Each structure stands twice: as C-alpha cells, then as structure tokens.
Amino acid sequence: MKLLHLAVIALVVIVVVAAVALLIPQLTSPTTPGTSTPTTSPTPTREYKLSVVVGPQSPWGQAAQMWADEVYNKTGGRVYIRVYYSGQLFAGQQTNEFQLLSQGVADFAVGSVINWAPVVKELNLFILPFFFPEGANKGDIYKAVDAIEEGEAGKQILQILESYGVIGLAWGENGFRQITNWKVPITKPEDLAGLKIRVVGSPIFIDTFKALGADPTQMNWADALTAFQQKVVDGQENPINTVIIPYKLWEYHKYITIWDYAIDPLIFAVNKNTWNSFDENTRQIILEAAKKAARWQKAMARVGLDDGTSLRILQEEFKYTPQITDPIKHLQNQGMEVVFLNETQRNLFKQKMHDVYSKWVPTIGESLVQKAINDVKNKLGITIQLP
Ligand code: X2X
Fold first, then answer.
1. Residue 195, CB half-sphere, CA atoms under 13 Å: how many?
2. Of 18, 186, 216, 255, which residue is 20 to 30 A from 37 by alpha carbon distance?
3. Phi-psi region for residue 87, left (φ > 0), alpha (ψ -120 to 50) or beta?
4. Domain residue spans of the chain
5. 212 burial class (0-12, 13-18, 19+ CB within 10 angstroms)?
6. Which of 174, 178, 245, 261 has the most ligand 1 atoms within 8 A of CB, as the residue to mutate?
7. Binding site membership of 353 for ligand 1 (Cβ less than 6 Å)
8. SS3 category, 217
9. pLDDT score of 25
10. Which positions of the chain have pLDDT values less than 50?
C-alpha cells in the first residue's frame, strides 16, 4: 500500500515538472506592444539566441522581444527566439557582440553599430563627430540618418556586414548621443576640460573626447552605472529615449547638453548560416517581423525629439502612445538642467574635430563617406561640410 502511495506521488511530481517545463518558453516571452500571445501550441525545434546590450526597460530591449514574439506567433511556435538582455551572451564585453554573431554563438542581435565598429571599421561613419547636419527644420537631422541608411551608403554597409557572415534585416536606432555629467553645464568645448567621460569601446570616442580636452575612459555599459554612482567618472554620452530615461541617469547627473554629435543606429541582424537554414517562407516572416519591430523601435527612439513624425507612426500604425511623449520636459521634471546648442555653439565643437576626421575618414573609406554625403544631398538638398 505504502509503495502504491509513493508511486502515485512520484507520478504526480513527474506530470507537474513536465507541465512547468512546457510552459516556461511562454512565461519567459512577455508580450510587447503590437504582439499577442501565441494561439497555436509550440513545437520549437530549438532555441535561437538573440543578443541585446540593454535591458527590457529600454525600447531597444523591448523591440528585440517584439521581434522574437512576432516570429514565434507567425511561425505558429516553430521558431522560438530567446532574448538575452544586458549583454548576457557576451559576459558584458559589448565589443565582442559582433564576433559572436558572425560566428553563430548568437543567432540574432539587435546591435548598436558603435559596439560593432571596432570590428567593422566602416561603421564608424555614424560616429564621425558632428557629421550629421541639423538642417533648417526640426527633424532634418533624422531625415539625414534615414537618407544614408536607405541610400547607397546604407546598401554598402549591409554588403560589408554580409561579408562577415551577418545579414542586416532592418535599421533601428539607439539615437543621437547627448552628453550628461554631474559637474557643469556644457555650452562650449572648454567646459569639457579635464572631465572624466565614460565612453564605449570604439577608439574613435577616445580621439574625439581627447580633441575636446576631456579625459575619456572606456567602459562597458554593464559597469557604467556603478561608475556613475561612485563618481569614478564625471559624465557619459548616450541617447535620451533609449538609455538616459530608461536608466534614470538624472539620479547621477544634473546636466545634459543636446549636441547630437553622433548617431547610433541599431541593426536587426541574423547570422548568415542561421538565415540560410530557414525556408523561404520562414525567412519572409523573420524579415517582416524585423521591419515591424524596427519601425516601432525607431519611432520610440525619436518620439518627442523629431518633428512629430514618430508620434504619428506610433499612434496611427501601432495604436500606441508612449508614456513619455515630451522627453525633454521629462528630464527637466526630474531636475535635469538641459542645455541646447545653437548652430554657432555647435560649430565651435565641430571645428575641433579636424584631426579626428584626418585619421578616421581614411579608416572608414573616403568613398563610403562621400556616398553618405551624396545620399543626404540627393534626398534633402543639404550639403554636409566636413570640419
Ligand atoms: O554602452 C552604451 O553606451 C550603449 C548602451 O549606448 C551601447 O551599447 C552603445
């Protein structure tokens, strides 16, 4: 009798464990805007890994999950992509992400070009300091980014990625990078003198900040918040909607200067072998899902900072209104002092960039830089002047 009891208990335990194991993929794949919970029962053949540097509090991380959810839903659960947030796949060393993707350790990534730029030198195009023109109208600078991504320069960049075994499916955006610090409002290059600034691992940042008289130090994002907290560094630079707000940087820094000095596009990408392993129909689903998530994500990165286009995209196409639609006001409400640079002030910074351009334009490739200049000229009629 005792034995029978034990057998029944063991059976119950086995059934419960099996049920929980089956449920786990759904539980760890939260629904993001624009997606719904899968209706078909999942039969994933294996787990695909997607790498992202930030956490789920950023629209960058949320879009990665949105992409994964959409693929899962549209393939009826056949393709299950697990999002590894906050650099889990590369143990916090964010400049390693591209290699892991190109080797297939990660199958997918929503990656920042900045983190990939140490490997793919051409990607430094986007971080050429003060390259992107403000233009005459609010939002022109964003149109210049689109012109390059959709133009000849963008096409060449995607071909270059492919030669490394990485297929770029859609362009998202971390955003224009703005500088924050706890010490002084920055209105002119001299204000940066001696300020310790945390920068990302691409060497162009070191050259740029040294040329401005600052004291740059490379650090992974995984270690940055502690460094801000302990004032190991005085400042940092990152985009407002995707990093500064989600990570509440006002808790460390009082001052922010909107100087749009570098753009950080994201690329929704897949390892080439992984891509080739899918049939045509599945590839189409993955591509469409990437485009949709990237469109939502790019609008989230720009909302309240462009000419109103992004808010319209979110509301009309996605039936989604973000919690914060006026990010600048939000920063001010949190106690930040926001400095805007006019064109003359911005030019004072740009004029200091001569040596950075002499070194980096040849590294990126003169012809690619020229293609980007032409893309902007052809689309917007704006002529980019190099320092
Ligand atoms: O590390 C950064 O500053 C971040 C989060 O913006 C990137 O991954 C480039």
1. 27
2. 18
3. left
4. 41-380
5. buried
6. 174
7. no
8. strand
9. 37
10. 1, 3-4, 6, 8, 10-31, 34-39
Q: Does any ligand 1 atom lie closer than 6 A to the CB of residue 178? A: no
Tokens found for residue 171: 């362009």
Q: Report the chain's mean pLDDT, rounded to a whole number.
A: 91
Which neighbouring-strand residues pair with 175? 264
Q: Give the model's pLDDT for residue 45.
A: 72
**CA–CA separation, 52 vs 72, rounded Å?**
18
| Whether the Cβ atoms of residue 67 and residue 35 lie closer than 8 Å to each other | no
Domain 41-380 has CATH 3.40.190.170: yes
**Sheet-wide strand order for 255-258:** 215-218, 196-199, 235-238, 178-181, 255-258, 337-340
Ligand 1, residue 174: give the atom nearest the CA: 6
Going by the DSSP 8-state scheme, the letter that residue 241 receives in this structure is: I
The pTM of this model reads 0.89
Q: Cα of 200 to ligand 1 centre, how many Å?
A: 6
Please provide the DSSP assignment of 40-101 as one string: SPP--SSEEEEE-SS-TTSHHHHHHHHHHHHHHHHTTTSSEEEEE-TTGGGTT-GGGHHHHH
Cα first-last separation, the chain:
88
pLDDT in the model for residue 262: 98
Q: Which of 131, 122, 117 is nearest to 357 (CA)?
A: 131
